[in-house]
Amino acid sequence: MSSPVLLAIVGPTASGKSALAVDIAHLVGGEIVGTDSMQAYRGMDIGTATPTLDEQRGIGHHMIDVWDIDQPVTVVEFRDKAREAINGIRAAHTLPIVVGGSGLYVRAVLEELDFPGTDPAVRARWEDELDRRGAPALHTVLAERDPAAAAAIEVNNGRRIVRALEVNEITGEPFIAQLPAPVDHYPTVRVGLRIDRAQLDARIEQRVDAMWAAGFVEEVRQLQAAGLAQAPTAHAALGYAPILRHLAGEINEEQARQLTIDDTRKFARRQQRWFAKDERIQWFDYDDPALASSVVGVVTST
């Protein structure tokens, strides 16, 4: 490829995006850029399903283990770092394969988005509310004021909830409405993995069980000692908050495991709803035996 397009693989968590990306990279000679904001934190490997070295199978992976957990990282900072990686891959005439993550981070990396400004006083007031009432309570407020934003933001992600409430207040419009019509920053082919709810629910439970077997609780225990509970963004990652509650004696381990499954399923539903609205995505069955070669065919014909 003299001027490679960019391939984006989207879909719900646990649908097989990472493995597909590696298969495609081996077929066409590509490198992978993740848009999972939590995989970018060091030490959060098990709970974020960060591909292991064996799972990476010799393919270059970017946006993994970039920042320490105490680093508050904005969407814009994440976008700029991811684009550095993409630009380097394209300069080497290699296919960048973006594997997503939340819809907002995928859009931020791939498209021209100008994010609304900030009002320090409004932000400080909502941060005080977050400290006083907690993320789930503020998520309920957001759901009443801006249901679309609440559907796109994880219930424990206090930092993003505060940002959405801030934008909602200073603009008088829904947070999601601030995202303009899509204009690609790169020439991009988008493919999505299609999976029915029952199969996805089963795969999520299997993934969580595998995380527990791999030592997820101990990973959180070690991160807790490094300040995870006070980390402005990292502590909101799926599964980490329930295990922190377990380690604090608030719930037992089985309850933490079940909360992780439930929260992950809810997050997957939000991913599906977000990406279903994007008419540019070409959808493929997640278990199609010819999946990788079919996607390569779409990319090479573009």
Describe what this molecule looks like in 3D.
The chain has two domains: 6-114 and 180-300, Rossmann fold (3-Layer(aba) Sandwich), CATH 3.40.50.300; 120-178, Histone, subunit A. Helix 5 (120-133) crosses helix 6 (135-145), helix 10 crosses helix 11 and helix 11 packs antiparallel against helix 12 (253-276). A six-stranded parallel sheet has the order 3-2-4-1-5-6, sandwiched between helices. The chain has 13 helices and six strands. The protein is an alpha/beta fold and 302 residues long.
In a few lines, what is going on in this structure?
The protein has 302 residues and is α/β, with parallel strands linked by helices. Helix content is 52%, strand content 9%.
Q: Output the strand order for the largest sheet.
A: 3-2-4-1-5-6
How many angstroms separate the termini?
11 Å
* Total count of strands: 6
Low-confidence parts: none
- Count of domain modules: 2
CATH architecture grouping of the largest domain: 3-Layer(aba) Sandwich
* Beta-strand content estimate: 5-15%
* Biggest beta sheet attributes: 6 strands, parallel
Give the number of helices.
13
In round numbers, the mean pLDDT is: 91
Structural class: alpha/beta
Quaternary organisation of the protein chains = single chain
Write down the CATH topology of the largest domain: Rossmann fold
